[in-house]
Amino acid sequence: MAPGLAVAWAVLGPLLGCALALQGGMLYPRESPSRERKELDGLWSFRADFSDNRRRGFEEQWYRRPLRESGPTLDMPVPSSFNDISQDWRLRHFVGWVWYEREVILPERWTQDLSTRVVLRIGSAHAYAIVVSQGLLCPEYIL
Question: Which terms does the UniProt entry file under GO BP (predicted)?
Fold first, then answer.
């Protein structure tokens, strides 16, 4: 392995399986007879945590209810860089927690067969991400 080449494992738990992360992220999966893909690109509800300690979202548990109920949200295209999309000067150089939310309908086969392995690939989370499913904060799924 070349010096400076980082190889990291991200264990996403039994629901999400395992993922091998290489330098720029894990390899892109391809559709096949044994593999279904679900693209999550599109518009997501978005909110930056502008509080002084940048922890209001966790303190008020924004993940327990629809994000729009926690305060104003934006429609944010995914993938994108939120710093470059909005005209809000506070987002231009923002560093802190941001929240993305989208309701997803899973393929029926994924929910009927409990032995189905589902891998979540987040292509734009380059620093730190926490996955929330059905209002439950899942620290074991921290990327």
Answer: glucuronoside catabolic process
Q: H/E element holding 91?
A: helix 89-92
Q: Transcribe 110-139 into DSSP letters.
A: HHH-TT-------TT--S----EETTEE-G
Comparing CA positions, the residue from 14, 39, 17 lying closest to residue 28 is: 39
Q: In what order do the strands lie in the sheet with 98-101?
A: 74-78, 42-48, 98-101
Q: How far is CA 96 from CA 100, 121, 127, in A?
A: 13, 22, 11
pTM value? 0.71
CA distance 143 to 139: 9
Answer positive or negative: Cα dihedral of 105, 9, 20, 57: positive
List per-residue pLDDT tens for the chain, 143 residues long: 333 322 222 222 233 333 333 344 556 778 888 788 888 889 999 999 999 999 999 999 999 999 999 999 999 998 888 999 888 899 999 999 999 999 888 888 888 888 888 777 777 676 677 888 777 766 544 44
Q: Are 60 and 54 in contact (CB under 8 A)?
A: no
